[in-house]
Design a protein that fits this description.
Layout: E1 3-8, H1 13-24, E2 29-30, H2 39-48, H3 55-66, H4 68-75, E3 80-84, H5 92-99, E4 103-108, H6 111-124, E5 129-134, E6 151-155, H7 165-179, E7 184-190, H8 195-201, H9 208-224, E8 233-240, E9 245-252, E10 256-260, E11 263-267, E12 272-279, H10 283-292, E13 297-302, E14 308-314
Parallel strand pairs: 1-5, 2-12, 3-4, 3-6, 4-5, 6-7
Antiparallel strand pairs: 7-14, 8-9, 9-12, 10-11, 13-14
Helix pairs in contact: 2-9, 4-5
Amino acid sequence: MPSLFFHDLPMPADESLTHVLNGLRKPLKTISPKYFYDKRGSELFMEITRQPEYYLTRTEVKLLQNYASDISRAVGENCLLIEYGSGSSKKVRILLDSLKPRAYAPLDISRDFLAAAAATLAAEFPWLEVHATCLDYTREFELPFSMDARRIVFFPGSSIGNFNRLDASAFLGRVRKLVGSDGGLLIGVDLKKDKDILNAAYNDANGVTEQFNLNLLSHINNRFSADFNINAFSHAAQYEPDNGCVAMYLVSQADQEVTVSGTCIPFSTGERIHTENSHKYGKEEFLDMAGDAGFSEHYCWTDESNWFGIFFLYSGTGH
C-alpha cells in the first residue's frame, strides 16, 4: 500500500485578501503570481510546458534525464526530498529511482491539484513515503511533520525567476534555514539568452500563456467574490533587458471598475496589472547570490546552448 499523508496548512483567507487589495491599490497594480495556480491554472501551465516556443521544460527535463545518476551522487541517498511548487510532480519522477529518498514532501498552494498529483505518485512509487503539504512556500514555514533525515529542497522550473533579485536572495536564505547545515537545494535556473527566444517563450502562438495569465482573474473572482470581466483585459509579456527579466501584465481594454470583496478598484484604458516577472541569470551571478545565502559548495549541469542550468547547492563542507 502507498504511504501517503496529506497536511493542509492554507494561508488565512483574510490575509490573502489584504495582500490582493494592497497590490491592486499600488500605482502599478500587481497580483502575485501565486494566484495563477488554482486547478485550472495548474492545468494550463502544464499545457504551456508542451508549447514549442517554451524551451524551459523540455531543456530541464533532458538535463535531469541525462544527468540523473550524477545528480543523485551529488545529492546522496536517504534524504527527505522537499519539492517547492510540486505541481504534477512530473520532473521528480526522473530522479526518484536513482536518488532513493527516504521520503518525498511535495509542497503546493493548489490543494486539489496537489492531492491528486500526490496520490498518483504514491501509487506509482509504493516504496516511497509521501507527505503532501498545502501551503504557500514563498513565506517562511515549518514542515508539519518531523523526520530524522537530511533535507534537500527540489525547486525545478526556474521558478526562482518569479522573485525579484532582492526577494530571490531572501528566498534562498529561507531555504538555507529550512535545510540546515547539512542540507541542500537542487534548483533549475533559466540563464540569460537572446531576447527573441525569451519573448517567443512567453507569447506562444497557440495563446496558452494568454489563457494562463487571464485565468488569474478567474481565480480572483472565485476566491475573493470579485467581478473581473475577463474579456476586458488582454495579455502582454516582453523581455526587459534593464531588469534582466520577462515581465507579464494584464492590460485593461477600457475604463472600468472592478469590485473585489466589496472594494471598488478603478481601471483606465491601457492600465496594467503586473502578474509575473521571470528573471534570467548569468551563472556566476546566481552562484554569488547562493553564496550570500549561506550555500558553500555547488555542482552545475547545463545544456549545450547554455540556455538552462540545474544547480545543486550544498550548505555543508567537504561534500
